[in-house]
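User: I've been trying to design a sequence by hand for this structure and keep getting stuck. Would you show me what you'd pick, starting by listing the structure so we're on the same page?

Assistant: Good idea, let's start from the same input. This is the structure you sent:
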C-alpha cells in the first residue's frame, strides 16, 4: 500500500460526548485506543467545538499576526516570566536542524492572576486589540479545546482500563499551553527551511486546528519509513499523543514524529495547538503502579530546560535533577 491510500483514522467523538445507545462510548474508546496504538494520531469530528468558535479563533490569529512587526515584538515571550506572548519567525531551532522554523507563534495558557511556581502559572500577555477582536474569541476557543483535551485524556485512560476519576488528581490545575501559529508562504522561506521541523510533542494530548484547505502537516509512519500528509479539513481536528503519554503507557500509545511544510507559494497557513499536559505535580495516571514517580513538571523542565531557561527556584520547586 502506498501512502496515497493511507489516511489517519477519522473518529466521530459524538458517540462518547452524547451517547445514544449503550455501546456508543465503548466503541469510541476502542477506536481511539486503536488509532493511538497504531499511529499516535487521529482526526476527529463530532468533537462538540462549534464552527463559529473555530472561525472566530482563526480570524483573531490572522488579526494578531497582521499587526506591525514592531508591535508584535513588544509582546515577546522572551520578556515574560511565564513565557507567554510572541515568538518571531526564525527563532525555534531544534538540535540537528540546519535552519530555524519559519513559523511565527503566540503562546498563552491558563489565566492565573498571580505568577506562581516561578512562572509555570501566571497571567497571559494580551495584545492591544479590541476585546471582541482577540481576547474574547481566543479565550472562548481556549476553554473549548481545554475541555476537548480533558475528554481525550478520559478516553485514553479508559482505553487502558482505568477510571475517569483519575482526572480529579491529574487535572486539578493542569498545564494547558496553547500555541497560535502562522506559517509564511513557500516563497518567503529559505530552501530547506521547514515551517516546523520534525519533532515529537513533549507531553500529553495535543488538540490541533488547521486552517481549512491549508495543508502542510506530515506525520512520520514508522513502519513505512515515509511521511504521511494530513488533510486540513474544516471542522475536523487532529489529535495526537506526546512523548509523556507514550512513556507512561509503556509504549502502548505512540508519539509520532511530525513536521509542517507550507507548500503554498503565496498563501500563509494558520494553525493552533492546545497541549493538555496535566497538573505539574501529577504522576503517571496511565499506570498508577509505575515505579517511576516523575511528575509532569519535572518532565517538562527536563525536556525544555535548554530552550526555556527556567529559574533556579522552579527547578528546585519541582525537584528536577540539575
Ligand atoms: O501547525 C501544525 O499543523 C502542527 C504544529 C505542531 O506540530 C506543533 O506546534 O507542535
Ligand atoms: Fe507538534
Amino acid at each position: 500500500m502506498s501512502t496515497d491510500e493511507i489516511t489517519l483514522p477519522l473518529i466521530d467523538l459524538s458517540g462518547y460526548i452524547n451517547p445514544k445507545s449503550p455501546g456508543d462510548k465503548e466503541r469510541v474508546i476502542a477506536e481511539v485506543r486503536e488509532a493511538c496504538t497504531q499511529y499516535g494520531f487521529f482526526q476527529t469530528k463530532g468533537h462538540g467545538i462549534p464552527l463559529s468558535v473555530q472561525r472566530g479563533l482563526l480570524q483573531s490569529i490572522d488579526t494578531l499576526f497582521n499587526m506591525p512587526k514592531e508591535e508584535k515584538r513588544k509582546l515577546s515571550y522572551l520578556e515574560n516570566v511565564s513565557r507567554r506572548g510572541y515568538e518571531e519567525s526564525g527563532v525555534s531551532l531544534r538540535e540537528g536542524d540546519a535552519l530555524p522554523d519559519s513559523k511565527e507563534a503566540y503562546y498563552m495558557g491558563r489565566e492565573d492572576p498571580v505568577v506562581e511556581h516561578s512562572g509555570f502559572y501566571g497571567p497571559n500577555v494580551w495584545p492591544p486589540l479590541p476585546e471582541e477582536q482577540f481576547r474574547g474569541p481566543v479565550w472562548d476557543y481556549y476553554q473549548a479545546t481545554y475541555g476537548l483535551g480533558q475528554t481525550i485524556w478520559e478516553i485514553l485512560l479508559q482505553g487502558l482500563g482505568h477510571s475517569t476519576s483519575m482526572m480529579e488528581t491529574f487535572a486539578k490545575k493542569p498545564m494547558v499551553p496553547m500555541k497560535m501559529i502562522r506559517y509564511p508562504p513557500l516563497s518567503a522561506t529559505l530552501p530547506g527551511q521547514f515551517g516546523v521541523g520534525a519533532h515529537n510533542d513533549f507531553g500529553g494530548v495535543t488538540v490541533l486546528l488547521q486552517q481549512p484547505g491549508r495543508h502542510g502537516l506530515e506525520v512520520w509512519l514508522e513502519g513505512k519509513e515515509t511521511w504521511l500528509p494530513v488533510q486540513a479539513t474544516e471542522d475536523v481536528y487532529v489529535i495526537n499523543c506526546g512523548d509523556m503519554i507514550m512513556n507512561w503507557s509503556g509504549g502502548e500509545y505512540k508519539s509520532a514524529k511530525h513536521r509542517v511544510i507550507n507548500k503554498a507559494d503565496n498563501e500563509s497557513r494558520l494553525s493552533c495547538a492546545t497541549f493538555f499536559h496535566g497538573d505539574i505535580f501529577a504522576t503517571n495516571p496511565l499506570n498508577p503502579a509505575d515505579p517511576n514517580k516523575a511528575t509532569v513538571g519535572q518532565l517538562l523542565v527536563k525536556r525544555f530546560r535548554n530552550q526555556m531557561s527556567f529559574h533556579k527556584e522552579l527547578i528546585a520547586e519541582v525537584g528536577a535533577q540539575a
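That's my pick for every position. To get oriented when you compare it with your attempt: Residues 135-159 form the longest helix (25 residues). The chain has one domain: 3-318.
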